[in-house]
Amino acid sequence: MKKTILIIEDNEQNMYMLSYLLEQSNYTIIKAYNGLDGLKLAHENHPEIILIDIQLPDMDGYEICNKLSHNGLPKSTVIIAVTSYAMGGDKEKAIEAGADGYLEKPINPDTFVKQMESIVNGK
């Protein structure tokens, strides 16, 4: 059975790239371009994996991670921050907010799916 991934990303090019790579790897994609829509879609669809950009227009990805990890999603849901924030402490901040993993942008199209699956399999 295909796993469903919710991508919360406001940048059209990043959304296209992530969606394309994941669809090629046989995942079903749900798209949200802001945090409020992302939270709503997460609760309506219960995706197995949620990829969250940290820098979003309405609320940051840390807040979304926190809300998702405390709002009744199945414990098996894997939340991964995908961000260009790569300063010291950013990964720890994402994990503290409720993310299970952290991937830096720009993503490498050749390794992204394997990196994501490594986080999923590690949970």
From TrEMBL:
One Gene Ontology term of the biological-process aspect is: phosphorelay signal transduction system
What positions are modified (4-aspartylphosphate)?
53
Superkingdom, taxonomy of origin: Bacteria
Q: Which InterPro entries match?
A: Bact_response_regulator (IPR050595), CheY-like_superfamily (IPR011006), Sig_transdc_resp-reg_receiver (IPR001789)
Membrane-spanning ranges: none
Keywords annotated in UniProt: Phosphoprotein
> Residue limits of the Response regulatory domain?
4-120
- Please name the PROSITE patterns in this protein's record: RESPONSE_REGULATORY (PS50110)
| A Pfam family it matches | Response_reg
Which SUPFAM superfamilies is this protein grouped with?
CheY-like (SSF52172)
Protein name in the entry? Response regulator receiver domain-containing protein
**Protein species of origin:** Maribacter arcticus
